[in-house]
Write a structure and sequence with these properties.
Layout (H helix, E strand, L loop, with lengths): L3 E7 L4 H10 L6 E8 L5 H8 L3 E4 L7 H14 L4 E4 L8 H6 L4 E5 L11 H7 L4 E8 L9 E8 L6 H33 L1
Parallel strand pairs: 1-2, 1-4, 2-3, 4-5
Antiparallel strand pairs: 5-6, 6-7
Helix pairs in contact: 1-6, 5-6
Length: 197
């Protein structure tokens, strides 16, 4: 069975992107990463992806209308034959129009146990609330911020003396495990659905 063509959007070092790429090398992985794109031309993850032989695309949105910027990203994804998109530390909100064009084909990993703590500062908010557990969630991207259907979650205990940084580091370890597994399961499910319809 042909592997599904995955595009990944990043804004920084791309550690979740790297975990997806590493997992894609397994013979039974249902996807291959064909493009890594970023809103930050200096993003460290772009250099790593290029070293792995993966095509990269960077477009700074500075001074551009959002629609024009997203059209450039969209064109790069389509030119690469991308079938599904994984957001991996991509720090820009996608417009409703972009989400609609890729409806049901974009996933994101978020550093909280959704529906708790949508948006930013998730670890500090979990600590401030006195939560006993924190974690991460993989979800389908919809027009609602961090509001799409959940595909998978991983929990970590909040330890005495945790700071936002120490908690974030432990959650990130789980992100690197959860994201490749969940994306693979999601794409296998999509493939099965396509064959049965």
């Amino acid at each position: 069975m042909a592997k599904r063509r995955l595009g990944i959007l990043i804004s920084g070092r791309g550690s979740n992107m790297a975990s997806l790429v590493e997992a894609s090398r397994a013979a039974d992985c249902p996807y291959e990463v064909v493009l890594v794109a970023s809103d930050k031309p200096a993003a460290a993850g772009l250099g790593w992806a290029a070293e792995q032989g993966i095509a990269t695309f960077a477009q700074s949105p500075k001074g551009m209308p959002k629609a024009e910027y997203e059209a450039a990203i969209d064109a790069a994804l389509r030119d690469a034959g991308v079938e599904a998109i994984a957001l991996a530390g991509y720090m820009r909100l996608l417009s409703d129009d972009f989400v609609a064009r890729w409806r049901g084909r974009i996933v994101n990993i978020h550093p909280s146990l959704l529906p708790k703590y949508k948006g930013l500062d998730t670890h500090a908010r979990a600590l401030a609330a006195g939560d006993a557990t924190a974690g991460c969630s993989v979800h389908i991207v919809t027009e609602e911020l961090d509001g799409g259907a959940l595909l998978g979650q991983a929990q970590v205990p909040v330890l005495p003396g945790d700071t936002a940084d120490s908690l974030a580091a432990r959650v990130l370890e789980q992100e690197h495990r959860l994201y490749p597994q969940t994306v693979a399961a999601w794409l296998r499910g999509a493939e099965t659905a396509a064959h049965s319809s």
